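Encode chain A's predicted structure.
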Amino acid sequence: ATEAKNVQGVLDLAAEIFKQTVLWIPTAKLNKAFEAIKAEKTGAVKRKAGWPKIYYVTQIAVNPITILMFVNNPELFEENYRRFIINRLRELLPIDEVPIRLLARSHRNSG
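Encoded structure for chain A:
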C-alpha cells in the first residue's frame, strides 16, 4: 500500500466480498442448488436411522449467510457432510468468498 501497487485490486476484492456478504439468495435458486447437490449423492453416509434427506431450504440471514435446511433428521447431517454441502454451495452460487452457516431442522418441527 505504501507503493500504491495493487490497491485497486484489493479494493475490488473488498467490494466483491461485501457484495457476497449481504447477498440474499432467492429460495427457488437455493433449492435448485440443493437439488444438484442431492443428485450427486456423495458425502452422505447411510446410518441405522437412514439417509440424510433434505426437503427444502431457505436463507434466514446475511452476514454471515445463514441457510436453514428442513431435513428428515438433523442428527444424520454430520460435520463432514455439512462441509461438503457448503463447499458445493460455494461452487454453485456466487458466495465463494464469505462464511456460510448451515443449520438443519426437522421438517416435522413446528417451531
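The chain has a mean pLDDT of 87.
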